[in-house]
Amino acid sequence: MGQQAITLFQLNQKIKGIIDDAMLSSIWVKAEIGELRVNRNGHCYLDLVEKDEAGDHLVARSRAMIWAQNFRMLKAYFESTTGQPLTTGLKILVKVTVQFQEVFGLSLIISDIDPSYTMGDLARKRREVLMRLEEEGVIDMNKELELPPVVQKIAIISSPTAAGFGDFVNQLENNPYRIKFYYHLFPAIMQGEKAEASITGAFEKVFEYAGFFDAVVLIRGGGATIDLLCFDSYWVAYHIAQFPLPVITGIGHERDESVADLVANTMLKTPTAVAAFLIERAATFLQMIDEKALMVTDMVRDIIEKEKQRTANFANTYVPLVKMDLQKRKSRLDRMIGRLPVSVSHRLGNERYVIQRFGERTKTATGSIFSGNHQLLGHYKTNLRALPSRFLHTSRQKLDFLEQSLHLNDPQHLLKRGYSLTYVDGKLVKDISMINKGDQTTTRFINGEVTGTVESIKRYKDRN
Q1: Per-residue pLDDT for 56 more than 80?
Q2: What span, in angstroms and rounded, lies between the C-alpha atoms of 443 and 296?
Q3: 72 near 41, Cβ under 8 Å?
Q4: I need a surface site. Which of 32, 132, 329, 442 has the fewest CB within 10 A?
Q5: For residues 201 and 325, what is the distance between their CA atoms, to the nearest angstrom?
Q6: Sign of CA dihedral 408, 409, 410, 416
């Protein structure tokens, strides 16, 4: 424990002396705002960070502050120049003085700010996103999609509480042409750190129903430039550029175009401008339909008029021809009426002769039929008399034959001739396959029965 030591206060005094001797004042420093807060006295406290370009990891960090009086001037100057407030995530170029206090440690006192650096950094990021989309060949993909003449089924990506969304819907529903639009909101966060993921997620949900909608409308109600930074995001632009439906933007900023605007199919300034665009587009289409309908009506009217004239001309030519034809037919009919009595008399004479001949042939044919039928009836009578005796004789012969067959096939008769009958379980054995080894059998003879057990079976080959 013989080492010489100093106190922490003494160490900090030495550090303060070194920094003071280095005269580190009025130095311009580039950094990113990691955190920013303003206390009740109006002083602004910042957490400045620096990240590496490759991995986005912190490589440096320091506390900084702007005194209240200076902060009011710098804030107004920065916002009026850039159009956006000082906030987390911005890269800034500030003039600082390095201070070291024994109690509070190292801090940077900001005395000035260069807004052009921040604006340049945002512009650089936008250029990098656009160059990347162009290198990937997707920057103009959505622009190449054909926007339908009437966009009637609309997928809306917006915040449900945004005033721009309400204005958009109100304008659609109360359009002067009474055109019916069908729309569905896919809600998303439209500003802040979560906006990028929320908007891309909404596009992915719309994609599931892409076959139903005509187009996608991306809208919000305006705001500070910093609130619109999410629309310069690569992933938001990438989803828009490659989306299979035309995308119409109405983000609500009047000064500049975002990357989302540049890759979308159609860019408009505000949600109400998008609604007006869709309404006027549909109204123009309806007007075109009305004009086409009038053209068709005029064409049909001309055709009808021409057909009327052609029919009139045809009638003027056709009427004399009809009258002439009717006169010829009347003359021919008069001649036929004059010849009718003679024709009728001649026809009646012919028919009377035909009927007379038919009557004579009928009388002769009837006599022949009666004679033939009389002979046939005599033949049937003779056969009927002989038929019962022949039938009885034949039946008696059949009965004698059946009686003889029955006698020959009687089991008693067979037994008398020296044959025997074998039974298994009361069933007559007709084939060797009906007997198994060990079965109890009964063999009948003419004068008795023998009972036994099967000890062996010998089967012969098939014999015909």
Answers
A1: no
A2: 110
A3: no
A4: 329
A5: 85
A6: positive
| Residue 270 CB contacts under 8 Å (≥ 6 apart), including other chains | 164, 221, 222, 250, 252
Cα–Cα separations (whole angstroms), residue 412 to 62, 115, 275, 288, 408:
133, 137, 115, 114, 9
Alpha helices by DSSP H, listed for 409-441, are: 411-416
Token pair of 196 as six digits: 């990028």
How is residue 177 written in tokens? 């042409």
- For 432-451, write each residue's pLDDT tens digit: 878 888 888 888 887 888 88
**Contact, 48 vs 33, CB < 8 A?**
yes
Quote the tokens at residue 448: 């008795």
Q: Quick check: 168 and 156 in contact, CB under 8 A?
A: yes
Under 8 Å between Cβ of 113 and 77: yes
Q: Which residue has the tokens 């033939």?
A: 372
Count of residues in the chain: 464
Q: Which amino acid is at 256?
A: D
The two three-digit tokens of residue 246, written as one number: 């035309």
CB 91 within 8 A of CB 30: yes
**CA pair distance 283, 356, nearest whole angstrom:** 93
**Cα separations in angstroms, 401 against 132, 154, 391, 392:** 115, 103, 16, 14
Distance of CA 135 to the CA centre of its chain: 33
**How far from 253 is each of 193, 260, 274, CA to CA, in Å?**
19, 12, 13
Q: Which of 58-67, 274-283, 364-373, 402-411 has the highest mean pLDDT?
A: 274-283
pLDDT tens, position by position, 115-164: 888 777 777 788 889 899 999 999 999 999 999 999 999 999 999 988 88
Cβ–Cβ < 8 Å for 78, 86? yes
Amino acid at 290: D
